[in-house]
C-alpha cells in the first residue's frame, strides 16, 4: 500500500543525491528485499565491481544494512535497504538549520560534513579538518575581508572538538555501533539467541523461558536503539599532560582556561553519526510551538518553546511511549512522565523573550499589582537590603494562590533575602511565565498537563495526545481542501459518533441525504472514511443491508501517507524533468571556465533562464519540505 | 416541491410518457458534450517563508556538496546510445565538470568493522598494509556555506524580496510565451563552433541564432 510509493520516493531521493547507479541498487533492494551480492548483480545487470563500490557508498551512508550468515559452511552476506534512512536524506536541510541555530556555523559545518560522510571516526574527522581548513583559511586571507573574520567559524581543532563534544552531549551526534549496520530483525534474532543460550539452564519449561526471553529482548533492543544516555558517554578523561597536546594547547591560548575546567574531552576513537531520532524530536517541538503560536499567540508560544527545550534532553525518541506493545504495561508509565516546574523553567529562561504586557490581567489583579508596586517602591527607597520580600510574599498570599505555593514562596524569600529590583523583576517574570503555562494547559489542545503544585506548579507534555491532535488537524485540513466545509463536518460527526447510517448522518448534519451522499462517497474514495455493510436478514442481499459509515484512524492515516509519498515522488520527478529540459544550460554554467568569468560568458537570456530554473526548483523543493512536514506528523509524531 | 410537480405531471399528461414529471419545470437539459477534463484552477502554492527558503538553500547546498564529492555517480551511456550531435569531442569538454561512473572510494579512511568482509577488497583494506592510516577524510571547507548566507542576507530586506517576486512572475509569464523557442534553444543551439543539427533545421532561424552563437563563441 504505502510501501510501493514509499519505495519509489526513496529511490528517487537516492537518485537525486547519490546518482543513478546507487538508486538502481537501492530500488532493486527495495523491490526484492534482502539479497546477496550475486543476485544484486544479476537483477541490476551491473558488473560486480560497480555493485560492490556502490554498496560501500550505501553502507557508509547507512542506506543499506547488511548481515552475514553462515550458510552451508560458508559465510553469505545479505544486503537490505534501510528505507527510513533513505527518507532521512530529505531532512538534511532541516538538520543543518537546527544545528546552525543551536551551535552556530561551527555546528552546521560539522552536521553538514557528518551527513556527507555518513559516519566517521572522530580522530579522522579532526585530522581532515586540519588540512582542509588550511586551504580554506588561505583562501580567506587572500580575500582579506575583515567583515568575514567576525563570524569566521572555526578557528582551531580545539574549538571543533569542543563543539563536537557539545553536540555529542546534546545527542545531536551519536556513536555508531555494530548493530546499527544490521537490520532490525537480524539484531533481534541475535539478541534472542544469545539470551536463550544464557538462560536455558535456569528454566525447565520452554514456555517460561520464552516469556522471560521475550521481555528481556524488548528491553535490550530498546536500550540498544537509544544507546548510552549517561552524561559522560563517549567522553574520556583528559590525559594529564601529553607532550604533543600541551604544545598544541599553547598555540591556542584563548581556549586554555575553558579546556582545563572541562576536564573531559571527546574520545577520539569514537565513530559518530548524526542522530536522526533526536532531530525528529526537535522538529516535533518546533511543530508544536508553531501550533501554539496559531492558537495562543507569539509570547505564549515562546514560553512553550522554552519549556519544550528544557525537557528535550530527556526525550530520546518521538514515539518512545507510543509503541504498540508498551500500551499493555501501563504500570511503568507514570514514572516516565517528564515534569518540569515553573521555577526550574524560569531559572534559565531566555532573557530576550519579552513577556511584558503579553497577557491582559483582569482588572482586580491589576489593582493588587499596583499596590504591590507601590510597596516595593517605598521599600526600595528606604532599604534595599531586606525590603520588599515579606510584604510581597504577603500580598501574594492575599491574592489566593494555591497552598502548595506558600512553601515555595518561603523558599524563594530565603533564597534571595535581599530583594532588589532585579529580584522583583525576576518574580514578576515568573508569575507571567506561570500564567502562560496555565494558558497552555487550559487550551483545548492540552499543550501541557498540570502535574502538581511543587515549584509554582509542575507541568508535563503528553506527546501522544498532542501527536494525535496534530494528525487529526492535518487530516481535517486536507479534507477541508478537498471537500470544503461539508466534508469536514461529516468527518467530524462520524468521528464523534462512531458508526452511522446515512440517514442518521443527514439528521445530525442538518443536511439532506442527497446533499451528503456525494460527499460521503467522495470521502470514501479518498480513503478518509470506511463503509461497512450489515445484513438485516440471513441471506445477505445488497438491498436489505445497513450501510454504516465509520472512521478508522489508522487506515485513513496510512492511506493519506501513501498519497503524500506519491505526491512527493511526483514533485521530485517534476524537478528532474525541468532540469532535463535545461540540461545543456546547466552544464554550461557548471563548466569551470564559465564559472570563472560568469558575467562575460553567459548571455542575458541564459542568465535569466537559469534564474527561472533556480526559483522554480526552489519552489518545488519548498513544496517537498511542506509535504515532508505532513509525513512527519502522520508517521513520526 | 418535487412531489407537487410529480402529481401535476401525472394529472395533466396522462399517457404522455416518461417526460411527464418534468414537463412544467423550466429545466433545460444541456446536451452539449461535456469536456473530459474541464478547466480547473490549480491550487497555488503560498509564498515561501524566510525559514523555508533558508532550509531549501541548505538542502540544495548539501546536495551540491554530495554531487561534488566522491560518492556521486552517474550511469555511463551504453555503447551505441551516443548522441551523434551532442556527444562529439569538443574543446570545451576540458572545462566540463567531471562526473564519476564509479565512486572514488580510496579517498578516505573507513571503519572496517562496519563493512562485510567481502567488501574489504573494494575498500582497499588489506590486513598487512598500514597505508590506510595516511588517508584523510575529505571535508568541505566553510566557504561553501557562505553563498547561502548571502541568500539569507538578500532575504532580509523585504523590499528586495518583493521585487524579486515580481520579477519572477514576469519571468514566468515570458517563459510561458517562449516555450517552444526555448526548446530549440537548449537542445540544438549549443555555443559551439560547428553545430551539425542546425544545418538540417529550417534556414530562416539559423540567422537569428547565429548572433547568439557569436556572442558566446568568442571565448573559445
UniProtKB/TrEMBL annotation, chain A:
It comes from the Eukaryota. Residues 8-67 form the RNA polymerase III subunit RPC82-related helix-turn-helix domain. Residues 475-550 form the DNA-directed RNA polymerase III subunit RPC3 winged-helix domain. InterPro entries: POLR3C_WHD (IPR055207), RNA_pol_III_RPC82-rel_HTH (IPR013197), RNA_pol_III_Rpc82_C (IPR008806), RPC3 (IPR039748), WH-like_DNA-bd_sf (IPR036388), WH_DNA-bd_sf (IPR036390). SUPFAM superfamilies: Winged helix' DNA-binding domain. The keyword Transcription applies. Coiled coil: none annotated. Residues 402-421 have a biased composition (Acidic residues). Residues 365-376 have a biased composition (Basic and acidic residues). One of its GO terms (biological process) is DNA-templated transcription. Its main location: nucleus. One of its GO terms (cellular component) is RNA polymerase III complex. Belongs to the RNA polymerase beta chain family. DNA-dependent RNA polymerase catalyzes the transcription of DNA into RNA using the four ribonucleoside triphosphates as substrates. Specific core component of RNA polymerase III which synthesizes small RNAs, such as 5S rRNA and tRNAs. This is DNA-directed RNA polymerase III subunit RPC3. It comes from Sphaerosporella brunnea.
Automatic annotation (TrEMBL), chain B:
Residues 1-20 have a biased composition (Gly residues). Keywords: DNA-directed RNA polymerase, Nucleus, Transcription. It comes from the Eukaryota. Residues 1-49, 153-220 are annotated as: Disordered. InterPro entries: RNA_pol_III_Rpc31. Its main location: nucleus. Signal peptide: none annotated. It is found in: Nucleus. It holds the Pfam family RNA_pol_3_Rpc31. Residues 172-194, 202-220 have a biased composition (Acidic residues). GO terms for biological process: transcription by RNA polymerase III. GO terms for cellular component: RNA polymerase III complex. Belongs to the eukaryotic RPC7 RNA polymerase subunit family. DNA-dependent RNA polymerase catalyzes the transcription of DNA into RNA using the four ribonucleoside triphosphates as substrates. Specific peripheric component of RNA polymerase III which synthesizes small RNAs, such as 5S rRNA and tRNAs. Component of the RNA polymerase III (Pol III) complex. PANTHER family: DNA-DIRECTED RNA POLYMERASE III, DNA-DIRECTED RNA POLYMERASE III SUBUNIT. This is DNA-directed RNA polymerase III subunit. It comes from Sphaerosporella brunnea. The lineage of its organism: Eukaryota, Fungi, Dikarya, Ascomycota, Pezizomycotina.
Amino acid at each position: 500500500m504505502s510501501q510501493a510509493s514509499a519505495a519509489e520516493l526513496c529511490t528517487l531521493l537516492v537518485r537525486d543525491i547519490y546518482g543513478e547507479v546507487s538508486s538502481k541498487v537501492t530500488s532493486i533492494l527495495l523491490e526484492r528485499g534482502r539479497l546477496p551480492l550475486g543476485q544484486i548483480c544479476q537483477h541490476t545487470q551491473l558488473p560486480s565491481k560497480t555493485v560492490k563500490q556502490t554498496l560501500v557508498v550505501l553502507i557508509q551512508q547507512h542506506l543499506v544494512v547488511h548481515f552475514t550468515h553462515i550458510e552451508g559452511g560458508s559465510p553469505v552476506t545479505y544486503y537490505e535497504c534501510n528505507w527510513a534512512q533513505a527518507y532521512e536524506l530529505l531532512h538534511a536541510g532541516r538538520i543543518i538549520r537546527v544545528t546552525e541555530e543551536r551551535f552556530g556555523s561551527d555546528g552546521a559545518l560539522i552536521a553538514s560534513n557528518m551527513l556527507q560522510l555518513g559516519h566517521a571516526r572522530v580522530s579522522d574527522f579532526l585530522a581532515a579538518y586540519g588540512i582542509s581548513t588550511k586551504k580554506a583559511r588561505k583562501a580567506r586571507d587572500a580575500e582579506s575581508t575583515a567583515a568575514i573574520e567576525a563570524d569566521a567559524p572555526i578557528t582551531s581543532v580545539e574549538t571543533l572538538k569542543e563543539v563536537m563534544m557539545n553536540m555529542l552531549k546534546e545527542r545531536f551526534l551519536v556513536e555508531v555501533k555494530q548493530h546499527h549496520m544490521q537490520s532490525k530483525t537480524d539484531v533481534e534474532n541475535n539478541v534472542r539467541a544469545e539470551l536463550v543460550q544464557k538462560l536455558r539452564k535456569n528454566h525447565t519449561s520452554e514456555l517460561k523461558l520464552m516469556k522471560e526471553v521475550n521481555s528481556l529482548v524488548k528491553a535490550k533492543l530498546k536500550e540498544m536503539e537509544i544507546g548510552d544516555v549517561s552524561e559522560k558517554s563517549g567522553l574520556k578523561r583528559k590525559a594529564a599532560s601529553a607532550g604533543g597536546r600541551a604544545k598544541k594547547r599553547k598555540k591556542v591560548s584563548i581556549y586554555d582556561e575553558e579546556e582545563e575546567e572541562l576536564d573531559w574531552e571527546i574520545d577520539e576513537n569514537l565513530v559518530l553519526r548524526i542522530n536522526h531520532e533526536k532531530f525528529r524530536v526537535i522538529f516535533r517541538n518546533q511543530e508544536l510551538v508553531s501550533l501554539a503560536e496559531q492558537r495562543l499567540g507569539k509570547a505564549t508560544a515562546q514560553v512553550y518553546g522554552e519549556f519544550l527545550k528544557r525537557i528535550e534532553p530527556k526525550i530520546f525518541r518521538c514515539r518512545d511511549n507510543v509503541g504498540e506493545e508498551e500500551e499493555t504495561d501501563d504500570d511503568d508509565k507514570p514514572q516516565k512522565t517528564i515534569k518540569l516546574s515553573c521555577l526550574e523553567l524560569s531559572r534559565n529562561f531566555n532573557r530576550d523573550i519579552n513577556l511584558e504586557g503579553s497577557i491582559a490581567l483582569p482588572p482586580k489583579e491589576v489593582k493588587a499589582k499596583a499596590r504591590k508596586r507601590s510597596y516595593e517602591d517605598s521599600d526600595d527607597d528606604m532599604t534595599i537590603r531586606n525590603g520588599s520580600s515579606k510584604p510581597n510574599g504577603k500580598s501574594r498570599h492575599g491574592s489566593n494562590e494555591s497552598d502548595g505555593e506558600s512553601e515555595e514562596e518561603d523558599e524563594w524569600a530565603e533564597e534571595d533575602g535581599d530583594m532588589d529590583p532585579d529580584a522583583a523583576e525576576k518574580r514578576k517574570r515568573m508569575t507571567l511565565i506561570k500564567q502562560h503555562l496555565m494558558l497552555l494547559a487550559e487550551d483545548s489542545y492540552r499543550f501541557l498537563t498540570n502535574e502538581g503544585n511543587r515549584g509554582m506548579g509542575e507541568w508535563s507534555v503528553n506527546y501522544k495526545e498532542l501527536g494525535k491532535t496534530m494528525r487529526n488537524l492535518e487530516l481535517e485540513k486536507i479534507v477541508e481542501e478537498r471537500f470544503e466545509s461539508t466534508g469536514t463536518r461529516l468527518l467530524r460527526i462520524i468521528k464523534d459518533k462512531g458508526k452511522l447510517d446515512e440517514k442518521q448522518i443527514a439528521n445530525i448534519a442538518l443536511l439532506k441525504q442527497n446533499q451528503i451522499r456525494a460527499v460521503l462517497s467522495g470521502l470514501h474514495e479518498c480513503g478518509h472514511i470506511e463503509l461497512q455493510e450489515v445484513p438485516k436478514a440471513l441471506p445477505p442481499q445488497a438491498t436489505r443491508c445497513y450501510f454504516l459509515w465509520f472512521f478508522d484512524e489508522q487506515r485513513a492515516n496510512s492511506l493519506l501517507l501513501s498519497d503524500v509519498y506519491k505526491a512527493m515522488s511526483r514533485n521530485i520527478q517534476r524537478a528532474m524533468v525541468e532540469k532535463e529540459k535545461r540540461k545543456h544550460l546547466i552544464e554550461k554554467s557548471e563548466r569551470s571556465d564559465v564559472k570563472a568569468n560568469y558575467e562575460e560568458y553567459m548571455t542575458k537570456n541564459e542568465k535569466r533562464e537559469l534564474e527561472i530554473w533556480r526559483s522554480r526548483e526552489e519552489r518545488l523543493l519548498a513544496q517537498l519540505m511542506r509535504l515532508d512536514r505532513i509525513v512527519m506528523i502522520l508517521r513520526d509524531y | 416541491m418535487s412531489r407537487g410537480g410529480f402529481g401535476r405531471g401525472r394529472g395533466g399528461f396522462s399517457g404522455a410518457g416518461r417526460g411527464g414529471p418534468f414537463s412544467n419545470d423550466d429545466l433545460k437539459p444541456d446536451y452539449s458534450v461535456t469536456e473530459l477534463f474541464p478547466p480547473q484552477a490549480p491550487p497555488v502554492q503560498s509564498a515561501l517563508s524566510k525559514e523555508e527558503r533558508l532550509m531549501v538553500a541548505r538542502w540544495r547546498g548539501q546536495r551540491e556538496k554530495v554531487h561534488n564529492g566522491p560518492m556521486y555517480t552517474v550511469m555511463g551511456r551504453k555503447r551505441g546510445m551516443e548522441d551523434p550531435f551532442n556527444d562529439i569531442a569538443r574543446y570545451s569538454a576540458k572545462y566540463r565538470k567531471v562526473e564519476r561512473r564509479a565512486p572514488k572510494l580510496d579517498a578516505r579512511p573507513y571503519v572496517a568493522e562496519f563493512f562485510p568482509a567481502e567488501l574489504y577488497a573494494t575498500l582497499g583494506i588489506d590486513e598487512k598494509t598500514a597505508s590506510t592510516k595516511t588517508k584523510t577524510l575529505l571535508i568541505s571547507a566553510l566557504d561553501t556555506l557562505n553563498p547561502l548566507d548571502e541568500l539569507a542576507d538578500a532575504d532580509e530586506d523585504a523590499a528586495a524580496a518583493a521585487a524579486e517576486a515580481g520579477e519572477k512572475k514576469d519571468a514566468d509569464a515570458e517563459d510561458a510565451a517562449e516555450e517552444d523557442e526555448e526548446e530549440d534553444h537548449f537542445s540544438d543551439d549549443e555555443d559551439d563552433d560547428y553545430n551539425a543539427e542546425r544545418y538540417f533545421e529550417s534556414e530562416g532561424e539559423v540567422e537569428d541564432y547565429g548572433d547568439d552563437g557569436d556572442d558566446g563563441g568568442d571565448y573559445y
